[in-house]
Specification:
Keywords: 4Fe-4S, Cytoplasm, Disulfide bond, Iron, Iron-sulfur, Metal-binding, Methyltransferase, rRNA processing, S-adenosyl-L-methionine, Transferase, tRNA processing. One of its GO terms (molecular function) is tRNA binding. Its cofactor is [4Fe-4S] cluster. This protein folds into 2 domains: about 60 residues, DNA polymerase, domain 1, CATH 1.10.150.530; about 300 residues, Aldolase class I (TIM Barrel), CATH 3.20.20.70. It has about 375 residues and is of the alpha/beta class. Helices cover about 35% and strands about 20% of the residues.
């Protein structure tokens, strides 16, 4: 059985090379070839001893994910659908901007959290991705884009774990992938430029702060427990008080001096003036008057199964103004890649559901959200 070297961070690759009787520096050379140069053929690695190259040919591979489709938006956003086997496929999205290139990476085939407004959650859950499958998305995208743009410079400057899946529920595969993204012998990304988005898996937030503290984004979406229980079912296990306390603990180790809260704007559900005031009160309660978070308001990207609608531009603007007037740094996310279903909450891939999501979501839709009119 061959070993896919994309599954290893540098320490893992060192251990693997030592098992072959090789010194540590060989692992570093190999790591650079794989991630910095995008090599998949051991014969390309001319500074490795021939004996090691021959050994690797019989025992190891550098194997990415097959690309099923690639779509490019009018705004330059690119979405890839990757085959992860057994009838499952995951999506990744590259978002180019003037000052950065961001790759949105998936961590699971599907998602078991089941947020009401998320297309991925409605599709259900099949399995966790391996470290190699997480990294393969970055490995492919970075080296594809360099060839596409005819540059040897790094193209992807930011990675957000905001694709399909809840990263914290795939923790053992997530952390080695993050370490590889940060490693100077691989992609050399700053901890400030790698973001993990979570719906609020509190114990794993605490572990990440110790194991690999990168930037943190929390899917908030509601200012009170009753509403959040319905929109983000995980809230029933880790309610807002536990989540907010975990955010404050994470801040002590975070590379930035703030946590980002994501807030999907749903017409008549969580976008009313009283919701804004509740949100302000929640943030002030835990911040004790100090700035400690940023709010990112996300216009909802509708899909039929959700039964939800996007807030009007006027409602989003009024909500943002209320937060800003209270001294909370607030942004409204620009919708990118909407024409290729690559915008926030739209990634669905193709998943063989093992969680009977359609049945669960149908029941969830019967629970009234008590919209305020």
């Amino acid at each position: 059985m061959t070993t896919n070297l994309l599954n290893f961070d540098l320490q893992g690759l060192v251990a693997y090379c030592e098992s072959l009787g090789e010194k540590r520096f060989r692992a570093t050379q190999l790591f650079r070839w794989i991630h910095q140069r995008g090599a998949s053929d051991f014969d390309q690695m001319t500074d490795l001893a021939k004996s090691l190259r021959e050994k690797l040919k019989t025992q190891a591979v550098i194997e990415g994910l097959p690309v099923i489709t690639q779509h490019e938006s009018q705004d330059g956003t690119i979405k890839w659908l990757f085959d992860v086997g057994d009838g499952n496929a995951v999506e990744s999205v590259f978002i180019p901007e003037d000052d950065r290139g961001t790759l949105c990476v998936s961590s699971q085939a599907g998602c078991a959290v089941g947020c009401r407004f998320c297309s991925t959650g409605h599709q259900g859950f099949s399995r966790n991705l391996t470290t190699g499958e997480i990294l393969a998305q970055l490995w492919f995208a970075e080296h594809f884009l360099r060839k596409h743009l005819k540059t040897e410079e790094r193209v992807i400057t930011n990675v957000v774990m905001m694709g399909m899946g809840e990263p914290m529920q795939n923790y053992s595969a997530l952390v080695p992938a993050l370490r590889t993204m940060l490693d100077d012998h691989a992609y050399g990304l700053s901890r400030r430029r790698v973001t993990v988005s979570t719906s609020g898996v509190v114990p794993m937030m605490d572990r990440l702060s110790q194991d690999c503290a990168v930037a943190l984004a929390v899917s908030l979406h509601a200012p009170n427990d009753a509403l959040r229980d319905n929109l983000v079912p995980l809230n029933k296990k880790y309610p807002l008080d536990e989540l907010m306390q975990a955010c404050l603990r994470y801040l002590e180790f975070a590379p930035r001096d703030f946590i980002t809260f994501e807030y999907c704007m749903l017409d008549g559900v969580n976008d009313q003036p009283e919701h804004a005031q509740q949100l302000i009160a929640l943030i002030e309660k835990y911040g004790k008057g100090k700035p400690w978070c940023k709010l990112n308001l996300i216009p909802f990207n509708p899909f039929p199964a959700s039964g939800l609608l996007r807030s009007s531009n006027a409602a989003v603007a009024a909500f943002a103004k209320a937060l800003s007037d209270a001294g909370i740094v607030t942004t409204v996310r620009k919708t990118r890649g909407d024409d290729i279903d690559a915008a926030c909450g739209q990634l669905a891939g193709d998943v063989k559901d093992r969680t009977r999501a359609a049945e669960r979501m149908a029941k969830q839709r019967t629970i009234p959200l008590q919209p305020v009119r």
